[in-house]
Design goal:
The protein has 222 residues and is of the alpha/beta class. It is 27% helix and 28% strand. It is built from six helices and ten strands. The chain has an eight-stranded mixed sheet. A hairpin with a 2-residue loop joins strand 1 and strand 2. It starts with a helix and ends with a strand.
C-alpha cells in the first residue's frame, strides 16, 4: 500500500474516532508524517501508534495529535506556544492552523533535526528555541494558545505557562506522572481567572525542568 493510501486510511480512522474539525484533518493531511519518523519505522508512519525518535522521546500517535489539536481550538490569527518540539510533527500541524508558532525543546539534537524538517517543508511561521519548557517563552507572551506535549506531574500546570496565557486563551496539557493515570487537561483563562476541564486519558513522557546541557539556549526562525 502506498503512503498516500495509508494516509487516507488513517484519516478515515481519525474521523471515525471523533476528529470532526475539518481544519485539523486538513492540516494532518498536508503534513507528511513519514518525514518525521526514523527510517526503520517508515512503514509504520501512518499507523495510529507512537514511535520512538531517540533521546527517550516519541512522536505521538496521530489520534492524540489530532485530538489535542482539535481541543486547542486554534484560529488563523492565533499566536501559539508549543512546549516539546520533539520530531517537529505536532509543530508543523499547528503551524498550518495559526499565524505564528513558537516551539521550545530541551534537546538541541532533536531541535536541529526538527528545524531541518521545517526548512525542507518550507514552513516559515515557526520560531524555535532550546530552553526549559516549564518556563515557557516569557519574551513573546501573552499567547492565545499553549500546547504541552509532555506530562506535568504537579496538581496544577506550571505557573509560568498559565501566566503567559492571554485572556481568552487555552492551554492543553497532559497531567499526571508515569506511575499513575495521566489525563489531558484544558485550561481556559477568562477575565475571572482559570477554568479547568479534564479530557481524555493519555500517556506521555514526563515534562522535565532545566536543560540536559548548560549551554543549550538559542532562538532561530524558519
Amino acid at each position: 500500500m502506498s503512503a498516500d493510501a495509508r494516509k487516507i486510511r488513517l484519516l478515515m480512522h481519525l474521523r471515525r474516532s471523533g476528529i470532526t474539525d475539518h481544519r485539523v484533518l486538513g492540516a494532518l493531511e498536508r503534513v507528511p508524517r513519514e518525514q518525521f519518523v526514523p527510517e526503520n519505522f517508515m512503514d509504520q508512519a501512518y499507523e495510529d501508534r507512537a514511535l520512538p525518535i531517540g533521546m527517550g522521546q516519541t512522536i505521538s500517535q496521530p489520534l492524540v495529535v489530532a485530538y489535542m489539536t482539535q481541543e486547542l481550538e486554534v484560529g488563523d490569527l492565533h499566536k501559539v506556544l508549543e512546549i516539546g518540539t520533539g520530531s517537529g510533527y505536532q509543530a508543523c500541524v499547528l503551524a498550518k492552523l495559526c499565524r505564528r508558532l513558537y516551539t521550545v525543546e530541551r534537546h538541541r539534537a532533536l531541535l536541529d533535526v526538527a528545524e531541518a524538517r521545517f526548512a525542507a517543508l518550507r514552513i516559515h511561521n515557526i520560531t524555535t528555541r532550546v530552553a526549559d519548557g516549564m518556563r515557557g517563552w516569557p519574551e513573546q507572551a501573552p499567547f492565545d494558545r499553549i500546547m504541552v506535549t509532555a506530562a506535568h506531574s504537579g496538581v496544577a500546570p506550571p505557573p509560568a505557562l498559565t501566566d503567559q496565557l492571554g485572556v481568552g486563551g487555552v492551554l492543553v496539557i497532559p497531567m499526571g506522572d508515569e506511575r499513575r493515570e495521566q489525563r489531558l487537561v484544558r485550561i481556559r483563562r477568562t477575565e475571572a481567572g482559570l477554568e479547568r476541564e479534564n479530557l481524555w486519558p493519555v500517556r506521555f513522557v514526563p515534562l522535565l525542568p532545566n536543560l540536559p546541557d548548560e549551554d543549550d539556549s538559542r532562538a532561530a526562525s524558519w
